[in-house]
């Protein structure tokens, strides 16, 4: 089942290069501050590129995927 396409106005998205992380804050406050600045951590801009993050329905972990990728790169 595919989700409906969403129209995104790139001018409404935050450019990630403008986000400043205060390393002196505790981890939880850095995360909260990042989310406050970027507004939507799943959709933002990196320069002229729109970045949209989504997750597939799978039992594979990120570690599984990275290991598979690295194995293919060395074959």
Summarize the structure.
It is built from two helices and two strands, in the order H-E-E-H.
Structure characterization notes:
This protein is of the alpha+beta class and 75 residues long. It has 2 helices and 2 strands. It has a two-stranded antiparallel ribbon with strand order 1-2. A hairpin with a 2-residue loop joins strand 1 and strand 2. The mean pLDDT is 86.
Describe the structure using short key phrases.
75 residues; alpha+beta; two-stranded antiparallel ribbon; 2 helices; 33% helix; extended
Q: Give the mean pLDDT.
A: 86
Q: Level of helix content?
A: 25-40%
With helices defined by DSSP (H or I, 4 residues minimum), what is the helix count? 2
Broad structural category:
alpha+beta
Compute the number of strand runs.
Answer: 2
Integer-rounded radius of gyration? 16 Å
The main pleated sheet reads as: 2 strands, antiparallel
Q: Report the span from N to C terminus.
A: 34 Å
The proportion of strand residues reads 5-15%
Q: What string, H for helix and E for strand, traces the elements in order?
A: HEEH
Stretches with pLDDT under 50, minimum 5 residues: none
Spatial strand order of the main sheet: 1-2
């Amino acid at each position: 089942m595919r989700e409906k396409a969403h129209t995104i106005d790139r001018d409404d998205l935050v450019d990630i290069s403008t986000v400043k992380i205060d390393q002196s804050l505790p981890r939880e406050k850095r995360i909260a501050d990042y989310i406050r600045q970027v507004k939507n951590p799943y959709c933002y801009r990196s320069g002229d590129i729109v970045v949209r993050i989504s997750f597939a329905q799978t039992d594979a972990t990120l570690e599984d995927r990275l290991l598979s990728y690295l194995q293919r790169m060395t074959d």
